[in-house]
Amino acid sequence: MSGKLRDWARALKRDVHAIYLASRDPRVPWYAKALAVAVAGYALSPIDLIPDFIPVLGYLDDVILVPLGIVLVLRLIPPQIMAEHRASALVQQDRPVSRIAAFAIVCVWMVSAVLAGWLVYGHVAA
Prior knowledge:
Radius of gyration: 20 Å
Number of helices: 5
Shape: extended
Helix content: over 70%
Number of domains: 2
Number of strands: 0
């Protein structure tokens, strides 16, 4: 059971990346791009149809609506274009992850936060 769920999650992750790649393709219809943006916006938005603080039901809309939106977007994108972008997403998924680059980015954010705090403290204390 957990193997099937893991495979489904990997396929969903690949498809989301492929949708992102397809949304930048000029061959994809505008309405598919618009729906892809709406689905991504809903998935990332803190505002939900059912608030998350309601037990079980709060996350149910995210678990049902987002995958259904993704499936609908996949159906609106022509199959040959989607196949190209799935293959591209699969290749990019297998690329090694640079932990050094991630560490560098975290360091830049930390230095920026410290600098911002120092500047705010300098204005407040003065």
